[in-house]
Amino acid sequence: MTCRFQGVFGAMSFIRLCIYLAILTTSSQAAANNNNPFNKAIVVTAGYDINWQFGEQTATKSVKGTDGTWYHLFYDGLRLRLRLTGSAEDSQYGARQFEDFAINDVQVDGKRLDVFQWCLNNQTKHNRFLEQGQTVKKEICQNLGEQGTFAMRLTKDTIAALETGNSLVYELKPYRTTVKVKFHIGDFVQVNNEFKRQQEEKLAAVRAVEEQALAEAKANARAAEALAAPAAVAAVPQPKVKPRARCKIGPPEGYSSIKPIAYDCDNDAARINAQANIDLKVEEIQNQHKKAAAEAERKRKEEEAARLAREEALRKEQEALAASAAVQAELSSDIAKKMIAVCEKNWAEGEHRCYCQKYIEYAPAEIRANSKCD
Fold first, then answer.
1. Do 356 and 349 form a contact (C-beta atoms < 8 A)?
2. Could you say which of 64, 149, 181, 335 has the lowest number of CB atoms within 10 Å?
3. How far apart are CA 133 and CA 332, in angstroms?
4. How far apart are CA 6 and CA 123, in angstroms?
5. Taking the C-alpha atoms of 280, 282, 283 and 289 in order, what is their torsion angle to the nearest 10 degrees?
6. Which one, of 122, 52, 45, 115, lies nearest residue 78 by Cα?
7. Which residue(s) pair with 151 in the sheet?
8. In 3D, which of 41, 39, 47, 40 has the Cα closest to residue 168?
9. pLDDT tens digits for 312-343?
10. What is the mean pLDDT of the chain?
């Protein structure tokens, strides 16, 4: 009886010990997960209170993260571009620069955009995320991490999804921590409406210039006809006792700056001369209008040519920067790998060197940064 009692007691103690160890292990794992900062995504939200800022056929919505980084969502009717900068200005010169910039996902109302999935499927090496330094077929998506920029060309279906959606979410990994940037787009349909309004305004201005040119051409034709075939005026006998009557010829409608010319009513030569003087002044004003319109059109064409030249220069500059950054990133990556390998040997011996300070994030937990190395 005594031996049996001891056996049962020993089994129960062993079971209790196993349960205790299981609970302890589970709690430790949960605590480790909760204390790991790299498992927590940073969320940046541009809510209903942030409005679009409009330019000429462009719209931008910007929001600032807790670390001081600004996220600018740019749309021009053809593409979406997300740029990370250090200031409130959406400028390439203030853009953040990354070595390992990753785009994990782009969703509207929780659903991945079809164009983003297409880019994943057509990336050169893998389809898990859009990686900096990799290319996408036809450049539908461009991950320019060295310029803090990610751009997507849009399809009609994508634009329709944006117009009917409420939220646009980018899941990024510019650092070791994931960042989710959420933009409220319930007002996106207003953006395209504003673009249409701008287009209609430009079209109306062009039509007004054309109509003015047509009206001036008709006025010139009427003036030419009047000079070529002046209407005959029947002579009216005047009593010799009365003074000569005076008549006036005024300018046509729309030329109020021309003063009327007076002449003797019974003097046909004076009337014809007065009419010719009026017509000459009308023609001078019309020529001035034509010159002004031609000058305005010339300036418009020059400005358009200059704008296209600037865009082309900027595109070439971006391509050159992208190519240079890709080479530098590859060289820097190889150097970093070699230096980390050297530093790991020192760290394994419990030592830290100043030349390893730059790579301290890869060191074991017991290795601390040395302020003297800064």
1. no
2. 335
3. 13
4. 68
5. 150
6. 115
7. 81, 142
8. 47
9. 889 888 888 887 777 677 667 888 888 899 89
10. 84
Orientation of helix 156-164 relative to helix 188-228, angle to 10°: 120
Query: Can you give the pLDDT at residue 355?
Result: 84
Tens of pLDDT, residue by residue over 110-161, are 999 999 999 999 999 899 999 999 999 989 999 999 999 999 999 889 999 9
Report CA torsion sign: 256, 258, 264, 267: negative
Instruction: Compute the distance between CA of residue 207 and CA of residue 265 in angstroms, rounded to an integer.
Output: 43
Euclidean distance between CA atoms 370 and 211, whole angstroms: 76
Please give the sequence-ordered ranges of beta strands (E in DSSP) within 65-160, or none if there are none.
70-75, 79-85, 102-108, 111-112, 130-131, 141-144, 149-153
Q: What pTM did the predictor assign?
A: 0.50
At 347 the pLDDT is: 87
What contacts 99, CB < 8 A, 6 or more positions away? 132, 145, 146, 329, 332, 333
Count of other CB atoms within 10 angstroms of residue 31: 10
CA count, 13 A, side-chain hemisphere, 71: 25
Alpha carbons 242 and 258: distance in angstroms, whole number: 31
Sheet architecture: strand order including 58-64: 53-55, 58-64, 70-75, 79-85, 149-153, 141-144
User: What is the spatial distance between Cα 5 and Cα 212, in angstroms, rounded to a whole number?
Assistant: 114
Helix (H, G, I), strand (E, B) or coil at 59: strand
Structure tokens at 141: 């998506």
Q: Which residues pair with 79 in a beta bridge?
A: 153
Instruction: Please give the DSSP secondary-structure letter assigned to residue 95.
Output: B
Cβ neighbours of residue 51 under 8 Å, at least 6 residues apart?
A: 61, 187
**Structure confidence at residue 304 as a pLDDT band (50, 70, 90):** very high
Of 138, 99, 104, nearest to 120 by C-alpha is 104
Given a cut of 70, whether residue 241 has pLDDT beyond it is: no
Angle (deg, nearest 10), helices 114-121 and 156-164: 140
What are the E-state strand segments in the chain? Answer: 42-46, 53-55, 58-64, 70-75, 79-85, 102-108, 111-112, 130-131, 141-144, 149-153, 167-173, 179-184, 246-249, 261-264
Q: What is the pLDDT of residue 5?
A: 40
